[in-house]
Amino acid sequence: MSGARWRKSSRSGNNGGACVEVADNLPGVVLVRDTKDRDGGTLTFAPQAWRAFVDVARRP
């Protein structure tokens, strides 16, 4: 999507492995893509769904 500002996940390592990038600067949508395959596709989430996912993922 045009205007997306991508940032690497804080949980991604620096070893070139399994990394994801997130763009959460667009209104009404959060985008997620694979750092190794940036043109391979993008997952799209509603902001509420993304927050719920992150909340669950942060649990010990």
Structure description:
The longest helix has 12 residues, at 47-58. The chain is flat and about 30 Å long. With 60 residues, the protein is α+β, with helices and mostly antiparallel strands. A four-stranded antiparallel β-sheet has the order 1-2-3-4. The chain has one helix and four strands. 3% of the residues are buried.
- What topology, given as strand order, has the largest sheet? 1-2-3-4
Care to count the β-strands? 4
Tell me about the biggest sheet? 4 strands, antiparallel
SS content category: alpha+beta
As for the number of domains, it is: 1
- Count of separate DSSP helical elements: 1
Run of helices and strands: EEEEH
Separation of the first and last Cα atoms: 33 Å
Shape: flat
Task: Name the assembly state.
Answer: single chain
Mean pLDDT: 88
Extract low-pLDDT stretches: none
Content of β-strand: 15-25%
Rg measurement, Å: 12 Å
Helix content: 10-25%
Pfam family, one: DUF397
Protein name: DUF397 domain-containing protein
Domain DUF397: 4-57
Which descriptors apply to this entry?
DUF397 domain-containing protein, alpha+beta, 60 residues, DUF397
Summarize the structure.
The chain is of the alpha+beta class and 60 residues long. It is 20% helix and 23% strand.
Please outline the helices and strands.
Elements lengths: L6 E2 L11 E4 L6 E5 L8 E3 L1 H12 L2
